Batch of 4 targets.
Target 1
Amino acid sequence: MNKRKVTFLSAVLIFITAFSINSGIFARADEEYFYLGGIPVGFSLQTGGATVVGVSDIVTTEGVYSPSKNADIKVGDMILSVNGKEVTDSASIAYALKDCEGNPVEVKIERDGLFITKYVTPRIDYDGTYKLGLFLRDNLSGIGTLTYITSDGKYGSLGHPITDDDGKLLEIKGGTTYLCSIIGVMRGERGKAGELKGIFIEDRKIGNVTVNNETGVYGEVDKSYDYGKLEKVKVGRASVGKATVYTCADGVSPSVYDISIVKIDDNNTENKNYVIKIDDKKLLALTGGILQGMSGSPIVQSGNVVGAVTHVFINDPTRGYGINIEKMVANT
């Protein structure tokens, strides 16, 4: 699977603002059972269109040409269509150019929120293929943690949105979630967030991806994935004190580690509702604290799932933030 891979978990310093939670969310969720996650997952996301990550020359029998550069197509532009054909990936551009016979093609792009039309003259390279001279990114992949699965087979994960390079919410057209195997750890240290290293297990599809929003990534579990053996829990409210986190730092199965919830702010608008501290010596020895890739790891207290890990403090990797679980449930 040839994909650009990132890990999902933000590194932050403390910042608090105010927000009002709909208390009815909790009342609904409290009546339901959920299957507890903590499972490492790999996301393959379709971003809709193909983003330009480089503009290249094309070497032809007649010389060297730069079709897209000459048409003022730039890095960061998103290609939406070519000659009226929707672009969803690199292959769809090749298909749209197949019968162009070297004539200029209409290329519609999105740039900084504006929709622009360019006309580009493709050139045929040495392998006989018409090209625009672009390097494209048409999907995004990364590692995170599945938080829970509902009784009717819907899941929630991450606890925060996947964003683009500018920090804006990434618009997706869909995607696939796979089981992921953690094969290495880059330990966290003061001033630098650590990271889980993992690989997709491509024949172990967990489900699809339907939503990426401010509280996480959501979808439906595939019929082939048996989640009935996972631990069943109810949603609960957190209190300051001892708790546990279900997360995986090696292989595919989560382990249970001791943490403390040291501060609660139900009204935080950035979904940083808990300040948590890793107490477990085994996890600290292995990872140094919270790592990128642990976002979505469920927080359990008094036998109930109360939240999920979302962020790590850059200045102290043993501490981080968590989101209230009912905020995630509301979007499932």
Target 2
Amino acid sequence: MLIASATTTAAEAAVSILLLLHLQRGFGLGVIEAAYVFLPGAIALMVLPPLLHKVVLRAGRRRAVIAASVFSAIFAVSLAWAASPVLISVLWILSGVAWAVLMPIEQAVVAEAAPDSVGTAMGVYTAVGLLSGAVGAIAAGVLYEFSSWQAACLVSAALILCGAVLGPWAIRRLGVADVPAEESPAVPGP
């Protein structure tokens, strides 16, 4: 699961930094204008996980990971030819929706795979995420500098699509439930 998470996190970090560079260089946006482009996707990532969990309960984790990875890769490919900051902002929502599905699944799978050491497992998961995010950002800068904007987006999309294969494989390999048990509501005390 850590390999799947690291691959997609590196690619998503690359897309994020590529987007920021492109908004500044390609469209001449300042910091505040660029933040407005990122805002709708950030709101989607913040608000949607509880709602999308119901979809995961019906579809299963493996299918949800595949769908979210494909949507995120479509975003990265579309970004390569997006002609305006408004369109990019709308596309960024698609990435936020994908991460609103992926992150809770990854965290739940890591926690379930290590029931006796959840804290350690989550610490390793977080460290791998931070490290792969840094690697992705550096790689994106190099790609952007020495190749084209489109090539950098396509490389990121290809890495994100790897998550559509690695994520379901990891879930199956770890032996965690594909369809998580629905939590029962807390029973109020006396």
Target 3
Amino acid sequence: MNYILETNHLVKKHGTAYRVKNVNLRVPEHSVYGFLGPNGAGKTTTLKLILGLIKPDEGDVSVFGQKVTAANRLAVLHQTGSLIENPGGYGHLTGLENMQIVQKLKGVSEEEILRSLKTVRLYEQRDKKLKNYSLGMRQRLGLAMALLGDPKLLILDEPTNGLNPAGIQEIRELIRSLPKERDMTVIVSSHLLNEVEQMADHVGIIHHGEMLYQGPLSELEKKGSNLEDVFLLMTGGGESL
């Protein structure tokens, strides 16, 4: 199996407490990898370590078959799209103008902006100022920015936050379609079991900064288990997502 992303004994501490402890992710190419865990489990910290937004205390990250270093980080990020925590932007600018800022950074065409806006169903609101966007619209604009340039790897941290049920379904269907239609690999984090089950074909479960399970979703189904059973078993049955 070809892995588009691997982390090797990734560690991040806050004082003496572990935020991430010896995490070894293995993300298969052209998969939707569901990164599952309760709030505070270490999901966002791990994704920030992968993107180089924070530095690990130990371990390393390999993307596209090469170890990420200070020298090649920008080249790797050029092929990576991400939406981490709350999407940013300038409130006094329109959605389109915010997209054009990212367009210049990524060096893509105006047509690519319009395509991305249509993909997330924000094309009709492109001339509306960002400060007048709802939280769900901001979330979709952040996803449109992440899709610019057709990255090989797309990293999404809780992408359905703030969306109504119809919006959640739209984003879910979009994420499922990306590996085949755009030749992408998607990592999507969530604290919701049903979201991961409906989007992912591979899953990693993290709790207190440590990986509890990693593998194909189908392997759990073959064993007659579901994600909730596995999570409760591995945490002693005392907590739930």
Target 4
Amino acid sequence: MNRRRNMMLVLILAILALASFFSLASGTYRIPAERLFEIIRGNGTIPENDVFFGMRLPRLILGLAVGGALSLAGVLLQAIFRNPLVEPYTIGISGGASFAVCLAVSLGLVGALGPFSVYLAGFVGAGAVMLILYSLNSRGRIRNISTLLLSGIMAGFVFSSLIILVLAFSKAEDAHGILFWLMGALDHSNLKLSLSALGISLLCLCSAFVFFSELDALLLGEEQAAHLGIDVPRAQFRFFLLAAILTTVAVSLSGIIGFVGLAIPIVARRIMGNSHRHLLPGAFLAGAAFLSLCDLVARTLISPRELPVGVITGLVGGSMFIWTLLNAGGRKNV
């Protein structure tokens, strides 16, 4: 069994490496393979350096960070709720980020404060929802994890209505920009921001990995986990906070990219097993590889035009999810 898991992990790493290579080389401005190594060594021309370091590399790193973050958040949430239908966007955080971005664009803050105001608004909106949920939990207003999930779902509905309200009062050009952001994109060009997102994602992965045995215990049910000596409420909210941080980073930087946190954890669980010792790194790498491949397709399918990457993840991830459910025989629990 361990040999099979190791083989699958090597396969995922190989797919990730190929996706990274083609992402750096492919596009409207094609860079030959031999030139990639020259650019990395510092021997590239000015146009090559501008494309590679100014566009392709930040975009690739952001795709790895967001894909890994959403997939990891999905694994954590599905373990907490013991339900494969739970994903990062069902806890209300994406709704808060989306509403904040829509409001910032509609009020003209993007033009006044620059493009980084979009990421800042998304981070503030998502972070505000996370802090509200944490405050309610710490004060005892949220009595169990199911109430927390329902609160997130209801918050998502409220924010969806507010977004429609903002769109109704926005200018046509602002509404177009808002809709494109809501479909998900990785087209910003800031290397430091991308590296920061990847660093936060990896830090959350390490934090979750330290407590992988608690995740395994939670899959057995709350009573069984308590009998094993697990402080269930504390463990549940620890993993919820990690999932919330991961979702906040992903949504604030890339918009709404659906099905990565839903489909990839399910597929990863089927090929890596239920042990989170193997599942956590496997799902993170699989999510990173999947989003990188989807972004490559989004950039090159109708080049020089570009599709929102959320469209590709929705088509591919949704198909994967339906196929997995059909083959799983309609099971509801992880």
